[in-house]
Design brief:
The chain is 23% helix and 31% strand. The protein has 5 helices and 9 strands. Strands 1, 3, 4, 5, 6, 7 and 8 form a 7-stranded mixed sheet that branches. The protein has a two-stranded antiparallel sheet with strand order 2-9. The protein is globular, with a radius of gyration of 18 Å.
Length: 196
């Protein structure tokens, strides 16, 4: 998939690839391409997709994270004291800023909403970067995942599977990530990392 040399370049924040837009090594071109992908996903009927463009508010993320869900997968699970507890089952897609690859897995998000103003006042969510074991989708979301995979393919993104990225790195390095300690790095960490 990637050579050790390519993985080291990714760790250093350098783009790799011989196809547009990654062959330009231009961050603006790559982000524009990812935005077109985002808009395309949001045109799927009954689908909402939200993106984290700003490196989670601090530091640097080597990827842009999408959380995509179907409107029917939003459920109010509780209501009291003027607030609703909302559960959303959907799919996370992490798209590399540095190479034409992505990973995909299921996530459940929760939010607390003030009924009177429809304002979100709290919530919780996960990350598929916890490990390659998170790159799974339940039977209920398989059709939706297949739709998203087709859009990724249309935009020339290779979807990496757990078997592609679960091996330990074969060389010593320092990765700016909050997800795994030194000497436990996986290939996944060289491609998808976030330094807070």
């Amino acid at each position: 998939m990637f050579s050790d040399e390519q993985l080291q370049k990714l760790i250093e924040g350098k783009m790799i690839g011989d196809a547009f837009p990654y062959d330009t090594a231009n961050e603006i071109e790559v982000e524009s391409h990812i935005r077109h992908l985002f808009y395309r996903i949001n045109r799927i009927p009954n689908v909402v997709c939200k993106a984290e463009w700003n490196h989670f508010g601090s530091g640097y993320a080597s990827f842009i994270e999408f959380f995509c869900y179907r409107k029917e997968d939003v459920m109010v699970v509780g209501e009291k004291y003027g607030f609703q507890e909302v559960e959303i089952k959907g799919i996370l897609i992490d798209i590399s800023r540095l190479a034409a690859v992505a990973i995909l897995g299921e996530d459940e998000r929760y939010k607390k909403v003030r009924i009177e103003t429809n304002e979100t006042v709290g919530g919780g969510y996960g990350s598929i970067l916890d490990g390659p074991h998170r790159l799974t989708v339940s039977e209920k979301l398989l059709t939706f995942a297949a739709e998203l995979k087709n859009v990724l393919k249309d935009f020339d993104y290779e979807l990496l599977e757990a078997k592609d990225i679960e091996q330990p790195l074969s060389f010593q390095t320092k990765i700016p990530t909050i997800y795994r300690p030194v000497r436990q790095y996986l290939v996944m960490d060289a491609i998808f990392y976030w330094e807070d």
